[in-house]
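re: that chain from earlier
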Amino acid sequence: MSYQTTYSLQFDVHQGDDPSYIYEELRDEIDALEPDANLGDLVDGMSVMTTWYEHEADLLDLSRKYPGAVIILEGNGSEYPDMWKKMFINGDVEEIRPSLVWPQFQLLNDVIEGGEL
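^ sequence. v structure.
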């Protein structure tokens, strides 16, 4: 069984490019990367759950082809806490991951402050 990730995509166009032109081309190119996965739906703002092991290489190539585009891919894997975002610009990529911080128990703080412990 393959590992599933839910992907979502955001992109923005800079440097005077026509967004409608890039949108249509980007949709066609992303859809062609994994024909059975309906990746073109990502460009339409939908999330897609699939296996897309080559997503980084694929989007690095697209970011080189469209240097005026900022592409952000978000992934939520089927195993917690596999969550990340990757930003692709001009053939470069940066990945960020969230950090989980547990808050303190308020009940314990109340007991300590009240001198009941």
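The chain is about 30% helix and 30% strand.
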